[in-house]
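Why do we care about 3D structure at all? Because function follows from shape, and shape follows, mostly, from sequence. That is the central idea of this module. The next example makes it concrete: a single protein chain, its amino acid sequence, and then its structure expressed as tokens.
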Amino acid sequence: MSTSMSPAPPEALDLQQSAAVFAALGDETRLRLVAALCAGGAMSIAQLTAGSTMTRQAVTKHLQVLSQAGLVRDSKAGRERLWMFEPGQVEAARRSLEAIGRQWEFALGKLKLAVETNH
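And the structure:
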């Protein structure tokens, strides 16, 4: 591993948006909704609540949080509103994690070099 060049600092990334994505996905119910939308494509709130004890209002609130984080979007289909998964923000959050991982590896490499040099 080369320690001559530091990886990009996390400030160079949109960490605020990534934090919103991680916060939205940190809730089990919202994670289940995203999984359902990934597996089933565009779905109505009625479809998302079918077989569940959750109310339509609760699902709507969770979908709004996911929408604010950029993870889902809705569209009108006649009288129905369909919700679909938007993968772009998940990809951006993944890139943020990769950048943080590279920084961690860089810091560990510097520590290893310092320990080896002092012995």
